Protein backbone atom coordinates (compact mmCIF):
# COMPACT_ATOMS: atom_id res chain seq x y z
CA UNK A 1 0.00 0.00 0.00
CA UNK A 2 1.36 3.41 -0.88
CA UNK A 3 1.75 6.26 1.56
CA UNK A 4 -0.91 8.94 1.85
CA UNK A 5 0.47 12.38 1.10
CA UNK A 6 -1.26 15.21 2.95
CA UNK A 7 -0.79 18.26 0.72
CA UNK A 8 -1.44 21.97 0.85
CA UNK A 9 -1.42 23.52 -2.61
CA UNK A 10 -0.63 27.22 -2.41
CA UNK A 11 -2.22 29.01 -5.35
CA UNK A 12 -3.91 32.18 -6.50
CA UNK A 13 -7.67 32.01 -6.90
CA UNK A 14 -7.23 34.13 -10.04
CA UNK A 15 -5.44 31.15 -11.58
CA UNK A 16 -7.63 28.38 -10.20
CA UNK A 17 -7.47 26.50 -13.52
CA UNK A 18 -3.83 25.66 -12.71
CA UNK A 19 -4.91 24.43 -9.28
CA UNK A 20 -7.58 22.23 -10.89
CA UNK A 21 -5.00 20.78 -13.29
CA UNK A 22 -2.59 19.89 -10.48
CA UNK A 23 -5.28 18.28 -8.34
CA UNK A 24 -6.31 16.27 -11.39
CA UNK A 25 -2.73 15.06 -11.81
CA UNK A 26 -2.65 13.89 -8.20
CA UNK A 27 -6.05 12.19 -8.55
CA UNK A 28 -4.97 10.34 -11.71
CA UNK A 29 -1.45 9.36 -10.62
CA UNK A 30 -0.80 5.65 -10.20
CA UNK A 31 0.07 4.47 -6.70
CA UNK A 32 -0.42 7.97 -5.31
CA UNK A 33 -2.80 8.54 -2.43
CA UNK A 34 -3.35 12.06 -1.22
CA UNK A 35 -5.53 14.25 0.96
CA UNK A 36 -6.09 17.85 -0.05
CA UNK A 37 -5.71 20.45 2.72
CA UNK A 38 -5.83 23.41 0.32
CA UNK A 39 -8.31 26.26 0.28
CA UNK A 40 -9.76 26.28 -3.24
CA UNK A 41 -12.10 28.94 -4.56
CA UNK A 42 -14.83 26.28 -4.64
CA UNK A 43 -14.52 25.60 -0.89
CA UNK A 44 -13.34 28.75 0.91
CA UNK A 45 -12.97 28.91 4.70
CA UNK A 46 -15.10 31.23 6.80
CA UNK A 47 -13.27 33.90 8.75
CA UNK A 48 -14.03 37.19 10.49
CA UNK A 49 -10.60 38.78 10.37
CA UNK A 50 -7.26 38.55 8.61
CA UNK A 51 -5.78 37.14 11.81
CA UNK A 52 -8.38 34.36 11.87
CA UNK A 53 -7.73 33.49 8.22
CA UNK A 54 -3.99 33.31 8.90
CA UNK A 55 -4.64 30.96 11.82
CA UNK A 56 -6.81 28.71 9.64
CA UNK A 57 -4.12 28.60 6.95
CA UNK A 58 -1.49 27.79 9.57
CA UNK A 59 -3.67 25.00 10.99
CA UNK A 60 -4.01 23.44 7.53
CA UNK A 61 -0.28 23.70 6.74
CA UNK A 62 0.55 22.21 10.14
CA UNK A 63 -1.28 18.99 9.18
CA UNK A 64 0.46 18.35 5.85
CA UNK A 65 3.54 16.42 4.71
CA UNK A 66 4.38 18.82 1.88
CA UNK A 67 3.41 22.23 0.50
CA UNK A 68 3.11 22.57 -3.27
CA UNK A 69 3.41 26.13 -4.59
CA UNK A 70 2.22 27.15 -8.02
CA UNK A 71 5.12 29.45 -8.72
CA UNK A 72 3.95 31.88 -11.38
CA UNK A 73 5.08 35.49 -11.10
CA UNK A 74 1.69 36.38 -9.61
CA UNK A 75 2.94 34.59 -6.48
CA UNK A 76 5.46 37.39 -5.96
CA UNK A 77 2.57 39.80 -5.47
CA UNK A 78 0.33 37.64 -3.30
CA UNK A 79 0.29 38.38 0.40
CA UNK A 80 -1.32 34.99 1.03
CA UNK A 81 1.14 32.89 -0.96
CA UNK A 82 3.94 34.77 0.80
CA UNK A 83 2.38 33.96 4.16
CA UNK A 84 1.95 30.29 3.20
CA UNK A 85 5.65 30.05 2.26
CA UNK A 86 6.65 31.64 5.57
CA UNK A 87 4.47 29.23 7.52
CA UNK A 88 5.72 26.19 5.62
CA UNK A 89 9.30 27.21 6.40
CA UNK A 90 8.50 27.98 10.05
CA UNK A 91 6.73 24.64 10.49
CA UNK A 92 9.50 22.70 8.72
CA UNK A 93 7.31 21.54 5.83
CA UNK A 94 9.03 20.63 2.56
CA UNK A 95 8.13 22.89 -0.35
CA UNK A 96 7.80 21.84 -3.98
CA UNK A 97 7.69 24.78 -6.37
CA UNK A 98 5.89 24.19 -9.67
CA UNK A 99 6.76 26.48 -12.56
CA UNK A 100 3.52 26.99 -14.54
CA UNK A 101 3.55 26.19 -18.24
CA UNK A 102 5.32 28.84 -20.29
CA UNK A 103 6.75 30.75 -17.33
CA UNK A 104 10.39 31.72 -17.69
CA UNK A 105 10.65 33.47 -14.33
CA UNK A 106 9.55 32.60 -10.85
CA UNK A 107 9.56 34.65 -7.65
CA UNK A 108 12.91 34.76 -5.86
CA UNK A 109 11.34 33.77 -2.55
CA UNK A 110 10.13 30.48 -4.03
CA UNK A 111 13.58 29.86 -5.53
CA UNK A 112 15.12 30.52 -2.11
CA UNK A 113 12.82 28.30 -0.04
CA UNK A 114 11.64 25.47 -2.29
CA UNK A 115 13.22 22.11 -1.58
CA UNK A 116 12.70 21.28 -5.24
CA UNK A 117 11.44 23.19 -8.28
CA UNK A 118 9.87 21.30 -11.17
CA UNK A 119 8.39 22.15 -14.53
CA UNK A 120 4.72 22.00 -15.43
CA UNK A 121 4.44 18.26 -16.12
CA UNK A 122 2.31 15.75 -14.23
CA UNK A 123 5.02 13.14 -13.66
CA UNK A 124 7.54 15.78 -12.54
CA UNK A 125 5.14 17.22 -9.97
CA UNK A 126 3.96 13.86 -8.61
CA UNK A 127 7.52 12.49 -8.39
CA UNK A 128 8.76 15.65 -6.63
CA UNK A 129 6.02 15.31 -4.02
CA UNK A 130 6.93 11.64 -3.50
CA UNK A 131 10.60 12.60 -3.02
CA UNK A 132 9.96 15.52 -0.68
CA UNK A 133 6.84 14.57 1.27
CA UNK A 134 7.31 13.46 4.85
CA UNK A 135 4.50 10.90 4.41
From TrEMBL:
Name of the protein described by the UniProt record: Nuclease
Organism field: Faecalibacillus faecis
Record domain Thoeris protein ThsB TIR-like: where: 8-104
Pfam short name (any one): ThsB_TIR
Amino acid sequence: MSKTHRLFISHSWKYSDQYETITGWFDEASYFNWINYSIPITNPVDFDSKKELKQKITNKINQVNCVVILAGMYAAHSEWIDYEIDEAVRLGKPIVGVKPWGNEKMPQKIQDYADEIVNWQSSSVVDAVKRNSNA
